[in-house]
């Protein structure tokens, strides 16, 4: 008999079929308590689950006593209570490599669009304001050869450094938990403490996972240390940044502009002050959102679940140490 799984995300047809070839699939829209209650038997029998952007906590796991593997269509896994998974011997699989280049592209897009005010001036053109040669009130600031600071030198940080160094001739500063020989050799990236990075960077780019240690890691104190001409970019997780402090820093001119793909609350509330600041480019968490990459992430997550339920966790597993 095929193992049963819960699917809580719509997948392309061919990938859905691949799942059905291996498993008995129950598809649900979300993991809300009402959904779990309505599908109690399917949840109780599920050995695997696959989806994204829904909380998987101890209360849910209580309803899923047979669960052996979870597979998220994302690199980030802050939605999961990893301790609760570990206690129950449940594997957590994620998609760390397939989205790297696409997210780095998004970060570079945020750098360029904030610096050159792409969104703002394009809107002015559409509003019919381009009536004669443009003057300084349309100008932006340079990107090439300015200093780019990266907080979090993981795969995405490295891909961003590559773009900035080779494409734009930018000196790279970085801060991470450990030195990164590849970044230093290939892109002449210079390791420095956070304060030095904040003080010396023209672009401060944050790409960190959300953990207890990174929550609100960038706040009022950090914005004060940045140049008043600095542009702040966040494309990791919203709560890494104290959003209220960011709003204050943007309003007071402590920093020049911000390019944001992630927020403390998503979707970003329509009354967020960020939306009325002209020096903010706000994107709807599109870091990995291209047709190609979202397909590849879903395909990777399907393979990950098949592997994990067959005891294969050498690759893409967050907690392989729990294997018996
Ligand atoms: C996903 C992300 O889009 O992978 C991540 O961690 O933030 C995004 O790429 C999102 O989690 C939805 O799948």
Automatic annotation (TrEMBL):
<dbReference type="GO" id="GO:0008465">
    <property type="term" value="F:hydroxypyruvate reductase (NADH) activity"/>
</dbReference>
<comment type="function">
    <text>Catalyzes the NADPH-dependent reduction of glyoxylate and hydroxypyruvate into glycolate and glycerate, respectively.</text>
</comment>
<dbReference type="InterPro" id="IPR006140">
    <property type="entry name" value="D-isomer_DH_NAD-bd"/>
</dbReference>
<feature type="active site">
    <location>
        <position position="266"/>
    </location>
</feature>
<keyword id="KW-0963">Cytoplasm</keyword>
<dbReference type="Pfam" id="PF02826">
    <property type="entry name" value="2-Hacid_dh_C"/>
</dbReference>
<dbReference type="InterPro" id="IPR029753">
    <property type="entry name" value="D-isomer_DH_CS"/>
</dbReference>
<feature type="domain" description="D-isomer specific 2-hydroxyacid dehydrogenase NAD-binding">
    <location>
        <begin position="108"/>
        <end position="287"/>
    </location>
</feature>
<feature type="active site">
    <location>
        <position position="237"/>
    </location>
</feature>
<keyword id="KW-0521">NADP</keyword>
<keyword id="KW-0670">Pyruvate</keyword>
<dbReference type="InterPro" id="IPR036291">
    <property type="entry name" value="NAD(P)-bd_dom_sf"/>
</dbReference>
<dbReference type="GO" id="GO:0120509">
    <property type="term" value="F:hydroxypyruvate reductase (NADPH) activity"/>
</dbReference>
<keyword id="KW-0520">NAD</keyword>
<dbReference type="InterPro" id="IPR006139">
    <property type="entry name" value="D-isomer_2_OHA_DH_cat_dom"/>
</dbReference>
<feature type="domain" description="D-isomer specific 2-hydroxyacid dehydrogenase catalytic">
    <location>
        <begin position="5"/>
        <end position="319"/>
    </location>
</feature>
<dbReference type="GO" id="GO:0030267">
    <property type="term" value="F:glyoxylate reductase (NADPH) activity"/>
</dbReference>
<comment type="similarity">
    <text>Belongs to the D-isomer specific 2-hydroxyacid dehydrogenase family. GhrB subfamily.</text>
</comment>
<protein>
    <recommendedName>
        <fullName>Glyoxylate/hydroxypyruvate reductase B</fullName>
        <ecNumber>1.1.1.79</ecNumber>
        <ecNumber>1.1.1.81</ecNumber>
    </recommendedName>
</protein>
<dbReference type="InterPro" id="IPR050223">
    <property type="entry name" value="D-isomer_2-hydroxyacid_DH"/>
</dbReference>
<dbReference type="GO" id="GO:0005829">
    <property type="term" value="C:cytosol"/>
</dbReference>
<keyword id="KW-0560">Oxidoreductase</keyword>
<dbReference type="GO" id="GO:0005886">
    <property type="term" value="C:plasma membrane"/>
</dbReference>
<dbReference type="GO" id="GO:0051287">
    <property type="term" value="F:NAD binding"/>
</dbReference>
<comment type="subunit">
    <text>Homodimer.</text>
</comment>
<dbReference type="Pfam" id="PF00389">
    <property type="entry name" value="2-Hacid_dh"/>
</dbReference>
<dbReference type="InterPro" id="IPR023756">
    <property type="entry name" value="Glyo/OHPyrv_Rdtase_B"/>
</dbReference>
<feature type="active site" description="Proton donor">
    <location>
        <position position="285"/>
    </location>
</feature>
